[in-house]
Amino acid sequence: MKDCLVHPEGGSDQEDMANSTLRLPCDQAAVQQPPLPAIWSIHNGPDIPCINEAIAMVSEDLFSASGRLDAVAHIYCLSKGNLTPRIDFDGPFAETFGAFQNAGSQWPQTGSLIVQVNPGFPHGKTWLPYELESSPFLDVTSCIVPGENILRWISLSPMSDFVFVLCASPLPLAEPALKKL
Question: 11, 45, 101, 130: which one has the fewest Cβ atoms less than 10 Å from its Cβ?
Fold first, then answer.
């Protein structure tokens, strides 16, 4: 069994964030995956420019024999303004997802954020600031692997007005047949 780093949601300053990382025992074979659709990670943007990481554990049960994720995984960026007080992240997924889909994902000002999923790994990817403005969400499906998945936000300015959400949903009805080809 190995240790998994668990980073808290947000933080008021770098010292709080540096001192609040927890180590929990983690056994990839024992990963409990909530049924799909589900929110896998919610991360509050930091008050200061910094690098934040979160870990999403994903069960091997969600992968086909070919190693592909049998789900769709997206990262959304939500403005805390009028949006997040109306969203019950602990409520039914359909209502939660519908609330932030209706309000729309909104990325911070161009040039202020870099997003990475599984950085440094062949399946990982980095989204530079200019890539964030072209889509309401990031499709991270191809980056997700069984076990530990690292989500990294490199904030070049304060991001305390934003919440980052990684959610997963079942493949659309036509997609499972395409994945088998």
Answer: 130
Side chain identity at 146, as an amino acid letter?
P
Using alpha carbons, select from 87, 34, 84, 78 the residue that is nearest to residue 56.
Answer: 34
Tell me the C-alpha distance between 68 and 141, whole Å: 9
Closest CA to 77 of 118, 45, 119: 45
Contact status, residue 84 vs residue 27, Cβ threshold 8 Å: no
Cα 45 to Cα 17: distance, rounded to the nearest angstrom: 12
DSSP string, the chain: -EEEEE--S--SSHHHHHH--EEEEE-GGG---PPSSEEEEEEEPPSSSEEEEEEEEE-GGGB-TTS-BSEEEEEEEEETTTTGGG--TTS-HHHHHHHHHHH---PPSTTSEEEEESTTSTT-EEE-HHHHTT-SEEE-GGG--SEEEEEEEEESS--TTEEEEEEEEEPPTTHHHHHT-
Dihedrals phi, psi of 28, to nearest 5 degrees = -60, -30
Q: What is the pLDDT of residues 146-175, one digit of tens each?
A: 999 999 999 999 999 888 889 888 887 544
pTM of the model: 0.72
